[in-house]
Amino acid sequence: MSKKNRCAFEFYNCDADRTHSSMNPIYEKNVYRDTRDSRRKLWKRIKTECEMKNIAIKDSDMSQVRFNIMNGSPVDANKYMMYGVILQKNMMD
């Protein structure tokens, strides 16, 4: 029986240095699979966090963050965010 490698993404609020100790996996229970619908939900979460001032993204970078989340690698959006990070998890089906 062959198994496929799939990935999912998790979003965490964190400190400016993105230390693991500042990320709380007990608080964060959302896992965003690599599907169109889940990517939309992740993008909505990022926008909400930004509007609530929990994370910082320059207005000029928002379109690139959206593109990375919706069409590219969501992890690439990290370079535009402060106080938030998207992590990729590899999963087996």
State the share of residues found in helices, binned by percent: 25-40%
Rg calc: 13 Å
Count of individual beta strands:
3
**Number of H/I helices:** 2
* Principal-axis shape: globular
Question: How much is the average pLDDT?
Answer: 90
N- and C-termini, Cα separation: 11 Å
- Strand proportion: 15-25%
Write out key terms for the chains shown:
3 strands; 3-stranded antiparallel sheet; 93 residues; 2 helices
Task: Explain what you see.
This protein has helices at about 35-50, 60-70; strands at about 5-15, 30-35, 85-90. The mean pLDDT is about 90. Helix 1 (about 35-50) runs antiparallel to helix 2. Strands 2-1-3 form a three-stranded antiparallel beta sheet, covered by helices on one side. The radius of gyration is 13 Å and the shape is globular. It has one domain (about 5-90). By secondary structure, it is α+β, with helices and mostly antiparallel strands.
Summed up:
The protein is built from 2 helices and 3 strands; from the N terminus they run ββααβ. It is of the alpha+beta class and about 90 residues long.
How would the blueprint of this fold be written?
Blueprint: E1 5-13, E2 32-33, H1 36-51, H2 62-70, E3 84-92
Antiparallel strand pairs: 1-2, 1-3
